[in-house]
Amino acid sequence: MGASAIEKTAQALDLIPYILEHPGVSIEELADSFESTPSDISEILSIIFMCGLPGYTHLELIDLSTEHGFVSIMDPQNLDKPRRLTKVEVVSILLGLQNLVSQGVSAEVAKIVDSVSKKMTDLLGDIATLEIIEGEQKIPRSEWKDLVEIAITDGKALDIEYLSLSNEKISIRTISPKKLYIRASNYYVEAYCDSSKEIRHFRLDRMRTVNISPRSISTSDSTNTSRSAVIEALIPKSALYFLETNEEIVMNSEIFGDQLRVSLEVTNEQWLFRALTSINGSVTITSPETLKAEFADLSRRTLDNYA
């Protein structure tokens, strides 16, 4: 029985850093090192060749060469480091090492086992504190959570470096945090953004740096914001990228015939109109009625420009 898709993905993630450390390695050598066959390795390499970062053009694909049966990776995107061991894997290694020592080993081997065991124990400590339970959700710990809560309590602004999922670029912003919440197993902060002059939602794990800002945001600016509204719409099934890049506003999504029915919580309706019109395919706002009519009129006028 062949490897599952998950197993192939794991093998691909292991192959990339190994090839980077051994440029020009042959497919046969990779098969030996990973206890596989040349045909299986070739299949996995063909999968890697089609993978990349969001943007999904040839510019974001992993740059891999298999010329004459020798493999090199020029641009691994963000996959240049070996995978972290899971808690189960770490515990399994520790139990295996303990079993090895119990059977009797030389002093030299015992020293190596002790060194590896210490590293595994330290790693287990890191993994054990990686997640916390909020209700029924497992939430990755955030190094910024405490600082964001302090800023909310004290009414302080924050200077942040924020990584955008849509274009993988880091922007520098000053925000005034209002509320910390959890959605889709991630921490978010609702905050007034001084750059956009609007309420925005920021995911904490995309923040690269966070510091209490020496300056404050104008109270009149930060309080002059629109209330959030829940909008329901029908979008093509192929528009999953829209949902992924804007998951902080997605309250619910479900299959509805040959489309997706989504509920979106937004504070800027004009931004939503622009975002929805950029989707390739039929898009319809179904609720509320006022926005349904306004968006339908905008869609007609947009299409008239191409008539």
CATH topology of the largest domain: SH3 type barrels
Return the string of H and E elements: HEHHEEHHEEHEEEEEHEHEEHEH
**Beta-strand level of the residues, as a percent range?**
25-35%
Largest sheet: 5 strands, antiparallel
User: What is the overall number of helices?
Assistant: 10
Gross CATH architecture of the largest domain: Roll
N-C termini distance: 55 Å
- Secondary structure: helix percent: 25-40%
Uncertain segments = 126-134, 219-225
According to DSSP, the number of beta strands is: 14
Mean pLDDT, all residues: 78
* Largest sheet, spatial ordering of strands: 9-8-7-6-10
What is the 3D shape? globular
Produce the secondary structure layout.
Elements: H1 5-21, E1 25-26, H2 27-33, H3 38-48, E2 63-65, E3 70-75, H4 87-102, H5 107-128, E4 131-134, E5 137-140, H6 145-154, E6 158-163, E7 170-183, E8 186-193, E9 198-203, E10 207-212, H7 219-223, E11 229-236, H8 240-245, E12 250-256, E13 259-266, H9 269-277, E14 284-287, H10 289-304
Antiparallel strand pairs: 1-3, 2-3, 4-5, 6-7, 6-10, 7-8, 8-9, 11-13, 11-14, 12-13
Helix pairs in contact: 1-3, 2-3, 4-5
How would you portray this structure in words?
There is one protein chain. The radius of gyration is 25 Å and the shape is globular. Helices cover 39% and strands 28% of the residues. By secondary structure, the chain is an alpha+beta fold. It contains 10 helices and 14 strands. The strands form 4 sheets. The chain has a 5-stranded antiparallel β-sheet. The chain has 4 domains: 71 residues, Arc Repressor Mutant, subunit A (Orthogonal Bundle), CATH 1.10.10.10; 34 residues; 85 residues, SH3 type barrels (Roll); 76 residues, Alpha-Beta Plaits (2-Layer Sandwich), CATH 3.30.70.
